[in-house]
Amino acid sequence: MTATTSRRVLLAAPRGYCAGVDRAVIAVEKALEQYGAPIYVRHEIVHNKYVVQTLERKGAIFVEQTEEVPPGSIVMFSAHGVAPVVHEEAAKGRLATIDATCPLVTKVHKEAVRFANEDYDILLIGHEGHEEVIGTSGEAPDHITLVDGPGDVEKVEVRDPSKVVWLSQTTLSVDETMETVDALKEKFPLLISPPSDDICYATQNRQLAVKQMGAEADLVIVVGSRNSSNSVRLVEVAKLAGARAAYLVDFADEIDPAWLDGVSTVGVTSGASVPEVLVEQVLEWLAGRGFEDVEIVKAAEESITFSLPKELRRDLRAEAGELMRGDTSEG
Ligand code: SF4
């Protein structure tokens, strides 16, 4: 008797673009249409190679530092947010700015400012060197201490243990963050929590879906870039949920066929900065190797959208007004 091997794909939902990334990418495209190329963008607008390369082809220029932008140009700040000092640098360089910081990152910035004004010590849970953490820390450098995981807790010191609050980066692993918080609470029993979740809805939902599929999948493929925090977290969450192996790929051609040895169920998902076309290419690659059955693993519904950055909305409205007036006068 010949054994038949059933091969299937579990496809996570939700996956891919979150509202903050969608808004930031559309903001660059609209800015290019509205003002013409080049539009300078400080840091990668979102952490995805494909998105960055596509926007570069359309006329966006990505820079690491504000000083690299020629005076009088337009510069956009990425979805990860920037410290107030970066706004000051832009003003000094006579740059017109468009701020594409995700509103959920801005929310954390505002919490940091509020708690700093009330003279709290703020323990910011996040990854050292990540752009979002640099931006949030810059709001209140004298009040914020970075805590990069449970291993950092021992060395954390505060001025007054009765006046301490924790905040976090938006794209962390929910479970690991709670581990860090528990360790912090043991050390500082009066530690207070942020008024609402700092880890954003998109990060939480993508992790939830991966947890559900990870328990059943032999292999999980996460589409995303290595510098994308939320994508890297999805790989970790998949392994913790029980997947035998989990890998991060930017493109389908990075998948090693050997990963499929002995595998009958493959989980597929993508980080919050990944366009769906890249997932479709992975599904095609798998279908070509007998993984044609695709089942959706749905963990949540998402319907959040954010309006474009205010500077862009203002100019688009002004242009629409001029067009209307032009139509009337020609009328
Ligand atoms: S991952 Fe969350 S915080 Fe980051 S851009 Fe998307 S919605 Fe905003």
Automatic annotation (TrEMBL):
Binding, isopentenyl diphosphate: H47, H80, H130, S228, S229, N230, S273
Positions bound to dimethylallyl diphosphate: H47, H80, H130, S228, S229, N230, S273
Cofactor(s) this protein requires: [4Fe-4S] cluster
Known pathway: Isoprenoid biosynthesis; isopentenyl diphosphate biosynthesis via DXP pathway; isopentenyl diphosphate from 1-deoxy-D-xylulose 5-phosphate: step 6/6; Isoprenoid biosynthesis; dimethylallyl diphosphate biosynthesis; dimethylallyl diphosphate from (2E)-4-hydroxy-3-methylbutenyl diphosphate: step 1/1
InterPro entries hit by this protein: LytB/IspH
Active site (record annotation): E132 (proton donor)
Biological processes, Gene Ontology terms: dimethylallyl diphosphate biosynthetic process; isopentenyl diphosphate biosynthetic process, methylerythritol 4-phosphate pathway; terpenoid biosynthetic process
Recorded superkingdom: Bacteria
Protein's job: Catalyzes the conversion of 1-hydroxy-2-methyl-2-(E)-butenyl 4-diphosphate (HMBPP) into a mixture of isopentenyl diphosphate (IPP) and dimethylallyl diphosphate (DMAPP). Acts in the terminal step of the DOXP/MEP pathway for isoprenoid precursor biosynthesis.
Annotated protein name in UniProt: 4-hydroxy-3-methylbut-2-enyl diphosphate reductase
